[in-house]
Design brief:
about 45% helix; about 350 residues; D-Maltodextrin-Binding Protein, domain 2; alpha/beta; Rossmann fold; single chain; two-stranded parallel sheet
Length: about 350
């Protein structure tokens, strides 16, 4: 009998804690460690037919790349069709949780999704602003940037930016980012996910509310969750969106404009925007409101994502900069240029724009 749950932890205590939690609910649980936990000798009495198998990958003491490799080895050794995967993360975030989670998500998109006739990862990778956002997130999550915080220097021609773009290009080359993504914008990516074609979706927070509404073309109602964007060797970093509200210095009605902005962003309206549209509120206290957390269980994750998010590149000529960025990245994703070539061209054109 195939294990119904596979728990992968980074140390023995974590593996045992999770197994005990399942056992308290009446499920037979087995804890595995050492050579039985991962690698060629991952076997033993009770492992194959355990309802819950909790594996200690012993990865906490290793650097990011080795920790991720041990997690994947443990997962691969015990994965069977129909298994539910539970990734145990240390409560104080010790070890390499981000690198391990990123590696596991990539492995699931590449190897597990096809077994269920799914594509891996849906994202807005058409040559427009959505691709700029996805590229910025990949670069930020790899520790790089596109422009300096004040927008006066081009910083994209860096090893970190290459790593970020390599991640996206490798995903297309390996197939867990399907070629269809290269034509997706927000609505088309969301529709593909809602139709049950994809294992993962990277999109804006309001998708949660839309995807939770029953409909003839929505096959994921009640079947999906939300996690923060992982990075390559640490927590990932999302791009900030939203609307910027400002008052012109030349306005003859500045006080009226300020009153209107205050009205739009007051507590009551922000609550309505969340409840009716799924838009992230600007009031931090709403993320801890019990009734809202019950309706939107992902609020703690959303708050974490916003806290670690970064603004898009700062430039007075942002429209031109975004066009340059998305065009160069699209060329790399379509294998017309290498990531280094694409970034070199991007850096040259961005330098001309900000001068």
């Amino acid at each position: 009998m195939t294990a119904r749950w596979l728990i992968v932890a980074d140390d023995l205590t974590g593996a045992a804690d999770c197994a005990i939690a399942f056992a308290k609910r009446g499920m037979a649980a087995v804890v595995s460690w050492g050579e039985r936990a991962w690698g060629e000798r991952a076997s033993g009495e009770g492992i194959a037919d355990a309802a819950v198998l909790s594996v200690d990958a012993d990865s906490r003491r290793f650097p990011a790349a080795q920790a991720a490799a041990r997690q994947l080895a443990a997962q691969a050794a015990h994965w069977r069709a129909g298994t539910r995967l539970y990734k145990k993360i240390d409560s104080t975030l010790r070890g390499q949780p981000a690198a391990e989670l990123a590696a596991q998500l990539q492995a699931l998109a590449a190897r597990v999704a096809p077994k269920y006739h799914l594509d891996g990862y849906a994202a807005t990778l058409a040559p427009y602003e959505g691709l700029t956002v996805n590229f910025a997130e990949a670069v930020q999550s790899a520790g790089g940037s596109i422009l300096s915080p004040d927008g006066t220097q081009v910083t994209v021609n860096s090893p970190e930016a290459v790593n970020g773009l390599d991640f996206l290009v490798d995903g297309v080359r390996q197939g867990w980012i399907p070629s269809a993504d290269l034509g997706y914008e927000e609505v088309s990516a969301q529709q593909a996910f809602e139709s049950g074609k994809f294992l993962f979706l990277n999109d804006w927070p309001d998708v949660y509310a839309a995807a939770s509404q029953p409909g003839p073309d929505n096959d994921v109602v009640g079947k999906f969750g939300v996690v923060a964007l992982p990075g390559l060797s640490g927590p990932g970093s999302s791009s900030l969106g939203g609307a910027n509200l400002a008052i012109s210095a030349y306005s003859q009605h500045q006080r009226t404009a300020l009153d209107f902005i205050s009205y739009l962003t007051d507590l009551a309206n922000e609550t309505t925007m969340l409840k009716d549209g799924g838009f992230p509120p600007v009031w931090k206290q709403l993320y801890n409101e019990p009734s809202l957390r019950k309706q939107f269980p992902y609020l703690p994750v959303l708050e974490q994502a916003i806290d670690s998010a970064q603004p898009r590149p700062v430039s007075a000529e942002y429209d031109q900069a975004s066009l340059v960025i998305s065009s160069a990245v699209q060329a790399a994703l379509r294998m017309r240029e290498t990531p280094k070539q694409a970034l070199s061209q991007m850096a040259s054109q961005l330098t001309q724009i900000i001068q």
